Amino acid sequence: MDIFISSAEEAFLHVGSMIGFFILLFGCINYKTNGNFTYVISKNKKLQPLIGGLIGSIPGCGGTLAIMPLYIQKKLSFGAIVASLISSMGDAAFILIASNFKLYIFVTVIGLITGVITGYIVDLFNLELKLNLKSPKCKTLGRGSLASNSYNKYDELDRVAHHHGNINKFAYIITHGVGYKLYIAILLIGFVFMTIAHSGISSSIVEKIHSLEELIAILGIVSSVIYMICFKKVFKNSNSEEEENKKGSLKEVLIHSVGEISFVITWIFIAYIVYDLSVILIGGEEYISNFVLYTGIGSVLIGALLGLIPGCGVQIVLLSFYLKGNVPLGAVIANSISQDGDALFPLIAMDKKSALWATILTTIPALVVGMIVYIISV
């Protein structure tokens, strides 16, 4: 039960609410600008790895999380995503900012340079195409497919829903009735809770918010699973007449965005449960970090390999040990470059092949740069 609750809080409040906020934000901006916002980014292909690296260097995972939907929608190059993942330090950045700001600048600059160079190499050799990462499944996500559509002609839910069969009729009513509105409300409440709870403000109001986090997180996860199932049923059973009449409605942008968000959050939740159970079986995150202490230059390899684990937990522990003088800087640099933070979870959920190759491509420069830093610093 503790794992379930903690995974729900991480998946919905700490990660999912932020992902959801940015998916909704991008969807609304695209709707208001008729897609011009993403068009400006997507047309500047030569600058995308640089843009991705700069966004990834923003402390925390928010920057990379924000642009991940653009890659899923094929508005951003694979090199830009790789650059962003490499330059991102995740939540560990806040620890360095508070404890050793000069080191934070150093690690950030190293990550940014490595990320941008790697991103340009990825795009230069057109690895996205050579690795066949343009998954057909991803084309059904985001604006330009269902996200830019609406059921303008169908004001009465029942009149359309009956075309979807008895079970799918109920699913249609949920997704196109009050369901998506309730979900957005829960999501925004979660986002506000997460923002206030981690703002550093101390007051009785913040304490009350903390006491409600578990309830909101569980409600959010349950809502995500239900909406994801309903949305999939509706999407699979939509007919050509409906598809033809879905043009330019903010309502359908929101409905599809919620479908995308619920899908991502559900799989993030599953990933966190698997991760937490795995850590328990291994012996804990500190056990993993302690193992690094006795490996010398091999610690760089271990640091890079530990970066394969999604999330920021292991890196935070490694960084804490480094600040105590127990882990070499090269291992921390390798882990920082290799680890992809929470931003990898939505990519795993939507495009597992791209997630796998992104992980591989961030690990290679992590080993190279980590070894160089280790040799110089010894």
UniProtKB/TrEMBL annotation:
Keywords: Membrane, Transmembrane, Transmembrane helix. It holds the Pfam family ArsP_2. The chain crosses the membrane at residues 12-29, 50-72, 78-96, 103-122, 182-203, 215-235, 255-275, 287-309, 355-376. The keyword Membrane applies. NCBIfam families: arsenic_eff (NF037962). This is Manganese transporter. It comes from Romboutsia sedimentorum.
